[in-house]
Amino acid sequence: MQLPVKFGLQKKESHTGWEPHKDSDLSMRTVSTPSPALILPPHSSPGVLNGSSTSSSTFGTETIAMVHTPPTSLTHPQRSLRQPRDQQGAPIDILPDHAFLQIFTHLATNQLCQCARVCRRWYNLAWDPRLWRTIRLMGDVLHVDRALRVLTRRLCQDTPNVCLTLETVVVSGCRRLTDRGLYTVAQCCPELRHLEMAGCYNVSNEAVFEVVSRCPNLEHLDVSGCSKVTCISLTQDVSVKLSPLHGQQISIRYLDMTDCFALEDEGLHTIAAHCTQLTHLYLRRCVRLTDEGLRFLVIYCPSVRELSVSDCRFISDFGLREIAKLEGRLRYLSIAHCGRITDVGVRYIAKYCNRLRYLNARGCEGLTDHGVEHLAKNCLKLKSLDIGKCPLVSDAGLEQLALNSFNLKRLSLKSCESITGRGLQVVAANCFDLQLLNVQDCDVPLEALRFVKRHCKRCVIEHTNPAFF
Asked: What ranges does the record give for the region Disordered, renumbered to this chain (predicted)?
């Protein structure tokens, strides 16, 4: 295969900015492709493609973005078949275009950029709009702001300033992402539906507001670990133009704000008022939230199906009373390590949320056999239950669970010091569909583990008994 011809723009140290290389064709700038050097960490090699290493240059400790024109080589499979064997192209060139597109759908963003530099045919295929519904960038030292700017500029080639095909952007773990990168996404990607930027702690509220205001179809937003994000709202300019019910204009259904430590009740109030279509909300380790914030959530977002307030230490039984107002819509609830929750709050959930499928109450030390009994008798569709580190739960609670929860598939009893072999045997004899049982750090005899294995053939047992294998 003929090696690609490389063109580029090189950055000088002078203040004149970007100047054309002597071999560059200025007329080809609008159809250039980002170099893999732009979207790979500067310390890692982008790899060698067809014997020629990909081009990158460094300025100080940073990788300089090289923008390349499409290769001038052109492969003609039909013509190559009539040529002598020693002059024919590579066998892969015989594949039809649709086969290449199918292969390219499995490549990451940086790999697609590498393929675009092989030859002109690959260039045209690699930039097929159907392959660019998603941009996925990863790396601690990645210049993600610059990468987003260059990629969106290339994708806007046919529709100036707008990427009509891009629906998903994943930049999780890109710690160098800043508001500048998010502004690029907001301005160029009006059809964005899915945005993940977990761990990007340099982004602020203003940039997030810009994205949700300019991307009306955004449904999935992951800002977990973005410690500066304390709210989700429309920009002030957009809010003024809308009616008092403008909160309904934000179409976010999935919101993950795990580890957003600065989130408070007032911020959750604003989120609930603007994101009324929420169905999945995760607030793990949002340690400043209280029961009052959950009251706002239930008022504005009655469609919530999955909710996590794990490790929110100020959430108590009053908060569970508010959550119980979601009634049969609630399917998933995590209240792990909420030390103020007792049987009273669990009783509210059991009574009103009778379609609950998943409950994580690990570390709720106020939960007893009475709370487990209420769950077992009311939540008959319960499939997964975690009551690990609940020292007041004993065999009596397990017996009630076994006699009522026939659909139970996953049960965690880790570090439940009051559990014995008798309780496990009752569970195994009634819950035939059990697939996972965690009894780590529980004082259960070997015979009980063997009994579980005989009656629950498909069950994986997690244990700390060295004699059982």
From this structure: 1-29
Q: Flag whether 16 is in a domain.
A: yes
For 275, how many CA atoms within 13 A lie in the half-sphere containing its CB? Answer: 28
Question: Which residues constitute the domain of residue 58?
Answer: 9-126
> CATH number for the domain including 224?
3.80.10.10
Integer CA distances (angstroms), 331 to 349, 350, 360, in order: 11, 12, 12
**What predicted TM-score, i.e. pTM, was given to this entire model?**
0.81
For residue 54, tell me if it sits in a domain.
Answer: yes
Does residue 384 sit within a domain?
A: no
pLDDT digits (tens, 9 = 90+) for 360-400: 999 999 999 999 999 999 999 999 999 999 999 999 999 99
- Residue 141 phi, psi (nearest 5): -105, 10
DSSP string across 368-418: -HHHHHHHHHH-TT--EEE-TT-TT--HHHHHHHHHH-TT--EEE-TT-TT
Number of domains in the chain: 2
Burial class, 97, CB count within 10 angstroms (exposed 0-12 / middle 13-18 / buried 19+):
exposed
What is the rounded CA–CA span in Å between residue 49 and residue 4?
Answer: 10
Sequence-separated (6 or more) residues with CB below 8 Å from residue 408: 382, 383, 384, 385, 401, 427, 431, 433, 434
Q: Which two tokens stand for residue 251?
A: 């179409």
Condensed to tens digits (0 to 9), the pLDDT of residues 6-25 reads 433 333 333 333 333 333 33
Beta bridge partners of 49: 52
Residues linked to residue 183 through DSSP beta bridges, in sequence order: none
